[in-house]
Amino acid sequence: METYAGSGDVRFEYKHFAFIGNESVKAAEASECAAEQDMFWPYHDTIFANQRGENVNAYSTAALKNFASALGMDTAVFNDCLDSGKYSRVVRN
Question: In this predicted structure, what is the pLDDT of residue 40?
Fold first, then answer.
């Protein structure tokens, strides 16, 4: 990390691959909202730990908000972000 990323020679880039339906899109948007609170990776790990299949309501809006709460995030800020669709364009792009 110090030799390459610290010098700016290499960077890590994360791209959302939300193609399975609305649930995967909302989960990706939620992870961007988590990033606002420096919780992207813990939230990302929680999403993947809670997979139950495609479009089976594992990533409903309520579930995504519960993940944020369980991680100790400011839920009012997180919920407003998710409900607003703030990162919809970012994820779809």
Answer: 95
Q: Which domain holds residue 52?
A: 22-92
Q: Are 26 and 64 in contact (CB under 8 A)?
A: yes
Domains held by the chain: number: 1
**For 23, what's the count of Cα atoms within 13 Å in the CB-facing half-sphere?**
16
CB 27 within 8 Å of CB 59: yes
pTM assigned to the model: 0.83
Cβ atoms of 60 and 23 closer than 8 Å: yes
**80/1 Cα distance (integer angstroms):** 34
Q: What is the pLDDT of residues 63-87, one digit of tens each?
A: 999 999 999 999 999 999 999 999 9
Q: Where are the alpha helices (DSSP H) in 8-87?
A: 22-35, 40-49, 61-70, 75-84
